[in-house]
Every structure is written in C-alpha cells, then in structure tokens.
Design brief:
- 2 copies of one chain form a homodimer.
- By secondary structure, the first copy, chain A, is an alpha/beta fold.
- The first copy, chain A, has 2 domains: about 100 residues; about 150 residues, Rossmann fold (3-Layer(aba) Sandwich).
- Chain A is built from 10 helices and 8 strands.
- In chain A, the strands form 2 sheets. Chain A has a 4-stranded parallel β-sheet with strand order 2-1-3-4, with helices on both faces. Chain A has a 4-stranded parallel β-sheet with strand order 6-5-7-8, with helices on both faces.
- In chain A, strand 5, helix 6 and strand 6 form a beta-alpha-beta unit.
- In chain A, helix 5 packs antiparallel against helix 6, helix 6 packs across helix 10 and helix 8 packs across helix 9.
- The longest helix of chain A has 18 residues.
- Chain A is elongated.
- At the A-B interface, helix 1, strand 2, helix 2, helix 4 and helix 5 of A face helix 1, strand 2, helix 2, helix 4 and helix 5 of B.
Chain lengths: ~270, ~270
C-alpha cells in the first residue's frame, strides 16, 4: 500500500502540494496525497491530527505530513500526531529570523493568492487581456501588451499566454503566423509597431502534424508536408526579423514561460 | 537596501519561488527576489555561486539563497558561497529517506512540469477544452466536462475554469446565468442532463457593479440595481436546483478552485 502523505495548510496548500510532489517524485514509490486546506483554527488542527492518527492505525504505518501552518499552536497540535511531520514553514523561518534579526509575523493569508491585493487584481486583468488577445482576435490595445507571442497554429502560444497572465500578471497577447504572412514575406501589419516585444514559438514539424491531426485528422492543415512548410517559413521569418524564439517541442508551459520572462527581462534583473 | 534572495533551481524554480515568497511575506521587510532557473550543470552552479558572492560584496551583506538543486555536487558548490543557503530539497529528502528506508534518485525534471508526461498532456487538453467551453460557447462534449461552473456574468467563472484546467487537468466548462434564464425560471436546457457536475459561483452585488463598470461604464448591465436583481435570481435558482455554490467576492481563483475540487471530490479522497 502506498504511504499516505498529508499536506496541511491554513491556505489552499497548492504551493505546498506542488513542492511536496516534486520532493516525493525523487522516490521510486507511489504515494497517496491528501491535501487538507484551510486549517485556520486549532479546532481544525485537532480534527486533522485525528484524521492523521486514524490513517496511521488504518494503514499500519505512520503517515508523512507536510505542514505549512503559520500558527504555532496549530502546528504543535499536528506535531503531536503519529506521523513524520515535515514543517516546511518553521524550518526556514527560524534561520531567516536569525539572519534578518527580525521576528516573523506568523500571519495567515499573506501569499500572492490573496484576492484583495493589487497583485491579484493585476493577474485577473492580465487573464482578461490575454483572452481578448488570443489568436490575433484583437489588435486593440496591443500597446498595453507586455509580450506578443507569435508562431504557427498549435505551437503552444495560447496555453503559454494564459499561464504568463495567470501566474505573473503578464499581459500576453498572441498572434498566429499563417500562410498569408509567409506569402507576403512580412509580419502581420498590426504587429510592426511592437517588434520589440514579440517573442516566437516554434515546434518540430513531426510533433506539429501529430497535434494538428488530433484536431483535424487527414486535413491539409495537419499534413506533415504542410507543417514542414509552415515551420520553415515561420522560422525563416523570425530569423529575418530578428525575433527571439524557442522550440516548444519538449518544453512545458512553465519552462517556456520562464525562458520568455528571462528574455523579455520582465523578471527582476540581477543588477 | 532590501536583502537579495536568490532562488536557484535545476528546473523553472517556479514552485520554489512561490514557496519562498510565502515564507518571506512573513517578514515586515521588502526583498529583491532573483530566480535563477535551469541550473543543470556544475558549470552553471559555479557561475551562480559567483553571482551570489558578487551580490554579497556589492551589497555589504550576504544574500539569502533558496536552493532546490537535486544534484549534490551542484548543491555543494552553492553551499560554499557567501550566503545563508536554505536547502529546500535535501532538508526534506533526508528524513524521508530514513522514514521510507529508500534512497532518493536525485534525478532532475521529475516534477509535474515535465512536458513529456501523460499528466502534462492532460493539462493541455483540459486547457483547450475549457477555452472551447468558456462562457457557454459550446454545448458539444459537455459530457466530457469534469465540472460545469455557472453564475452571472463576471462572477469569476472564466479564470477559475482556466486555473482548474491549467493546474489540475480538470476539464472545466462554464456557462453564464442570464436574465433569459431567470425569466424562464430554469437552468439552461443544455445543462439539465449534467446537474450532478454543476457548481455555482456568486458574488456580492456591490463588487459586481464595480467590476462590470470597469468594462461597460454607466450601462444598465453594470447598474447596482441590475446586479442585485441578477445575483438574487441566480442564488435563488441555485438553491432551488440544489446546486452547490460559493461566493467569489473575497476569494482568489486558487481558493475557489481548492473548494471546488473538494466539493466535486476530484481531489484524492481521504478514504
């Protein structure tokens, strides 16, 4: 039976779960992850500890618990349960307190996931912007875009734009490069004023034909020959126009987004 | 001057940055965050250590470094730099190795952000599904939806659907409740077969009028009286139809998504 892993948080526990997942993936072992969010009172901490103890009895081994509770009382309650408790919060807060010669506030809900902050409002605004400027739908307010992604249809522009908006509040428009553009041998006119913030995505033609065939099986659009043509033309255009680009073939949206943020220097610079 | 915080990862460092952010937000102190992604060789580790040492000299205090490097050699290089190095990885891997009586693999790129996994492909597929089923755009394949969000226009359905798809591979359709539905006193017909997977979002009318006024200032659509009417009718309908719902007014998309996952039990159950 897979060991049970509880992720206990006073917020959503999403970050802690993702982090726990990446640590656990280092073991050749399956785990059963149970996220326990919104534990924002000692009462809830007690009932979580009970759940953990029950799991220990039921499974005949003590569970693993990742906690990010900031309230020390609740955290202590958890630590008395029959489990390996890994405290992702206090473990790092203590050395930081010493280093900074400051006490931490132990206040809940201070992360970027708080809905009542300007940062959060920017993220929602950016999502709306990116949706309105998906797939070249609108040329309006392109001036406000932080980045404009270009590339052939199905090269990964849409998920990347939405991810940039959702996670970073980056207003990411995206614009397809289509055969018309290749025949004219020029970027779409509406993009010309914004050359400086264009970033390209390309993709291996073999992978592209697979993706397009899922959507429109047997079409000319999806044919390998056509995919080769479009990708060649798009890459030639990006080179000619001095547009930075990357291949999305084996990259996740997180990896693509991270590279783009570095390239367009929206990330905080080192100096 | 704000202390500099480096986040060093062999992957994107996104999870580590989010996590570091939530820890640092516990201090009444501003920080300058520098994410250093893709450190997947000892050469890159050396040049990162140099950068850290330069920052120490330049700023007259040693920086704070969060590392999630899985390669022990690279990690050792970083730890010899002039910084408070907080090892988010090894700190938890070691007690886990003891508990599980297993060695960890120290393999890079094992997280959910790897583009060549089925989990990743599901996420992309879910994003496409959620986009195609945004705002009631399509009734096709609603059968495939994991959840269908309903609510008045601008109650938060779209960002929540996209978030569920992007982070969890949940196929989330969304459908607006509009005055026509209220006059008929019934859910839209196309939703009737899927009652079991409908989840509602509501919102405070005062907040709704603010949001709508940003989009269409001075319109009837945005007027407080109309917002009150729509919200009342929508809540009455959801009660009548036995649809679970929550108010999105002070909730982030992460919080809304977490609640929905719990309610529709897509999250892994405790037993």
């Amino acid at each position: 039976m897979s060991p049970t892993v509880f992720i206990v948080s006073d917020g959503t526990g999403i970050t802690a779960e993702t982090f726990a997942h990446s640590i656990l993936s280092q073991f050749d072992q399956k785990f059963r992850l149970v996220r326990v969010p919104f534990i924002d009172s000692t009462d809830k901490a007690y009932s979580t500890a009970e759940k953990i103890n029950e799991a220990a009895v039921h499974e005949g081994r003590r569970p693993i618990v990742f906690t990010t509770l900031v309230d020390s009382n609740s955290n202590e309650i958890l630590k008395r349960s029959n489990a390996l408790v890994l405290d992702m919060f206090q473990t790092f807060v203590e050395p930081l307190e010493q280093e900074l010669e400051l006490k931490s506030s132990h206040a809940m809900g201070r992360g970027h996931q708080n809905a009542d902050t300007d940062e959060y409002k920017n993220r929602i605004e950016a999502i709306n912007f990116s949706l309105a400027h998906d797939d070249g739908q609108s040329d309006r307010n392109l001036n406000d875009a932080d980045v404009i992604l270009v590339g052939v249809s199905r090269s990964g522009k849409t998920p990347t734009s939405l991810y940039l908006a959702m996670q970073y509040g980056v207003k990411a428009a995206n614009y397809p490069l289509i055969p018309d553009d290749f025949e004219r041998g020029k970027l779409p006119n509406s993009l010309l004023p914004y050359r400086g913030k264009i970033f390209g995505l390309s993709i291996d033609p073999q992978r592209l034909t697979e993706i397009r065939n899922e959507r429109r099986p047997g079409s000319k659009y999806a044919a390998l020959e056509n995919c080769r043509y479009e990708v060649n033309e798009a890459e030639a255009m990006m080179r000619r126009e001095n547009i930075k680009w990357l291949s999305s073939t084996h990259k996740s949206i997180e990896e693509i987004a991270t590279t783009i943020l570095q390239e367009i220097r929206l990330d905080k610079p080192v100096y």
